[in-house]
Q: What sequence folds into this?
């Protein structure tokens, strides 16, 4: 095995590129709203969405027709140059590394709008070698374009090999910002027998035992979550690396109820956000990925009751200790980060009164 000094992980990969970050800032990213920059109608709506969503993402990959790849890239350069994004982050999803478009995507975007671009989402990541490739290219292009701060990398988990390598992917570079589940490509790559973009499937279930041996009798069925294993694995890999996990696309735009369920499962398991494919999904994501008033009320009550944070107390018949306090602090810290950019949430959280 060849060794690399720990110090060298934080040296730029090209002369003149900005130094890598030592920590990924916790910037709210509850909804990553996808738009197609080659679609003039969609592109025209982007400036008005600034401030209404945490992340706007110009998509160049799947869902953009091959004939429109150049128009999408150029459209994104135009939108980014003409728009002041204020508190909203600007991300892009580049074409996959085995496509003929990705090199021009990176060269054009980094040299022309590199200072506006926060994160580059890389699809179909297979292993750490894919991250290393983009890492070095970004450094070279940042140096060429005079970009002042490092552009971060977000990987989509959408190949079987990528899932097998998720820990190495998460740890592949100080640029790694986070990972999203890509349920549509992942299902195809694994040869799952579904035909949907995210969400559950009525055939994936367990059934209550027969009553009195009557196997054809009335037996409750419980639908299971197809994505539980992958999301849990992704959350652990991200937590280990100090980066952020996300749900991905939920394709049934009309089923806002099931979308909310999937997003909430992901939130409870540790994800910080999800993709939005339609403005309807932004509202759901903003609500689901913000701690509820009830949770913050309880969390603050535990923080107060636990004093210096050690020992145990009883609240409403339940034991609270150092570890339950730490869980509460996750929610309290998240609420503070979100309140800093979301005045409506701030008002809600500020109005909470704690009982003893
Ligand atoms: C997203 O890109 C997916 O394939 O689900
Ligand atoms: Mg995909």
A:
């Amino acid at each position: 095995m060849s060794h690399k000094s720990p110090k060298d992980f934080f040296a730029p990969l090209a002369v003149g590129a900005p130094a890598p970050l030592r920590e990924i800032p916790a910037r709210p990213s509850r909804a990553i709203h996808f738009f197609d920059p080659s679609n003039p109608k969609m592109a025209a709506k982007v400036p008005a969405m600034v401030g209404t969503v945490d992340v706007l993402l110009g998509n160049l990959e799947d869902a953009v027709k091959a004939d429109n790849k150049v128009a999408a890239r150029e459209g994104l350069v135009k939108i980014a140059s003409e728009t002041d994004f204020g508190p909203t982050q600007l991300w892009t999803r580049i074409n996959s590394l085995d496509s003929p478009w990705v090199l021009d995507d990176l060269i054009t975007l980094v040299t022309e709008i590199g200072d506006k671009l926060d994160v580059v989402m890389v699809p179909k990541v297979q292993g750490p070698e894919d991250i290393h490739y983009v890492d070095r290219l970004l450094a070279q292009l940042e140096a060429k374009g005079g970009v002042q701060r490092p552009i971060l990398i977000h990987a989509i988990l959408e190949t079987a090999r990528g899932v097998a390598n998720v820990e190495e992917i998460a740890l592949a570079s100080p640029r790694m910002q986070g990972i999203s589940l890509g349920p549509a490509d992942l299902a195809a790559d694994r040869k799952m027998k579904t035909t949907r973009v995210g969400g559950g499937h009525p055939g994936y279930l367990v059934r209550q035992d027969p009553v009195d041996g009557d196997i054809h009798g009335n037996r409750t069925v419980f639908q299971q979550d197809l994505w539980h294993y992958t999301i849990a694995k992704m959350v652990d890999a991200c937590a280990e690396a100090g980066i952020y996990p996300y749900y991905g696309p939920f394709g049934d735009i009309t089923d806002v109820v099931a979308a909310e369920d999937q997003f909430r499962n992901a939130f409870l398991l540790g994800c910080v956000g999800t993709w939005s494919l339609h403005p309807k999904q932004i509202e759901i994501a903003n609500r689901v990925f913000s701690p509820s008033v009830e949770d913050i009320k309880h969390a603050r009550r535990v923080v107060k009751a636990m004093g210096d944070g050690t020992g145990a107390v009883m609240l409403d018949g339940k034991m609270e200790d150092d570890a339950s306090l730490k869980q509460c602090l996750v929610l309290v810290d998240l609420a503070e980060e979100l309140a800093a950019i979301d005045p409506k949430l701030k008002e809600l959280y500020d109005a909470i009164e704690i009982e003893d």
Notes: The longest strand covers residues 152-157. Residues 62, 123, 156, 158, 182-185, 197, 248-249 surround glyoxylic acid (ligand 1) (CB under 6 Å). The chain has two domains: 6-289, 294-350.
